[in-house]
């Protein structure tokens, strides 16, 4: 900003001079709390581009406007950081402009410009409704919607990724919560998770078994068991242990296989179970001290070759009917993965 403009801004008369031109006042009225391009402003004001651009430059140099590039165009809006003096002056000027006949005409033409924007979107969807899902997956990936929904999580939470494997779930959760504690009994899996999560500051890896978690009582706000129960000879003690490390009211999400006939998974994947029914999961969770169990079969991925998955959610409400914890849990704080 050159010295003369800076001096003008320091003077109330300089501020008023910037707004003295009716065109600049109309421009600011259009750009107050909305973004418009030069061509859209020309359409509303019925003025040539050279005139509109000249006034935009004066306002931008005076600190009244902000802009950003978008493709080959540039979008303008009123500067969000106006100082209080400028804001008070603008409120007075705006109130006066609103009574002028030109204000009503500008508002009507602005509605037409915005309607044209909307019609372009509507035309696209009219042409593309049949292929929108495929197009969105091609542009943004099949998991974009699911990953975005993680933004609904409470940003203050500590979440346990229990049986974390190579850390894919932890990597997805980390941007949306305060802390992730990832636990696995396989040191090879933890090594892979450490490589994946290098540089992710809010994920902590710990070595331990699900039946004897290296976590304090009520340390977690939420916990995830993603494709884990199939590998446990007896899931009940593990679920009781998860209840111990969840605070009262904490949430548990279990994702695993629905009942299936793939006997070969015992050999190829090391599974102990051939999926789980809703009744089986609900019984185990309620016995462990959970309530509000919801079991939902997930829609199949067209590219997936395995059995259907379910998602079961529950809320920790009380201490469950548990077996005595093994003596190994006494040293859980020393078993944290370095």
Descriptive report:
The strands form two sheets. Strands 6-5-4-7-8-10-9 form a seven-stranded mixed β-sheet, with helices on both faces. A three-stranded antiparallel β-sheet has the order 1-3-2. The chain has helices at residues 3-10, 12-19, 22-31, 38-45, 49-61, 84-97, 101-128, 132-140, 144-149, 168-173, 187-196, 235-245, 265-268, 278-288; strands at residues 36-37, 65-70, 73-78, 158-162, 179-184, 203-207, 220-226, 246-257, 290-297, 309-316. α12 links the parallel β7 (220-226) and β8 (246-257). Mean pLDDT is 85; it is low at 5-9 and 321-338. It is elongated and about 80 Å long. With 338 residues, the protein is of the alpha/beta class. It folds into two domains: 3-130, Arc Repressor Mutant, subunit A (Orthogonal Bundle), CATH 1.10.10.10; 144-334, Vaccinia Virus protein VP39 (Rossmann fold, 3-Layer(aba) Sandwich), CATH 3.40.50.150.
Question: Could you write a compact summary of the structure shown?
Answer:
The protein has 338 residues and is α/β, with parallel strands linked by helices.
List its traits.
338 residues, 2 domains, 14 helices, Rossmann fold, alpha/beta, Arc Repressor Mutant, subunit A, seven-stranded mixed beta sheet
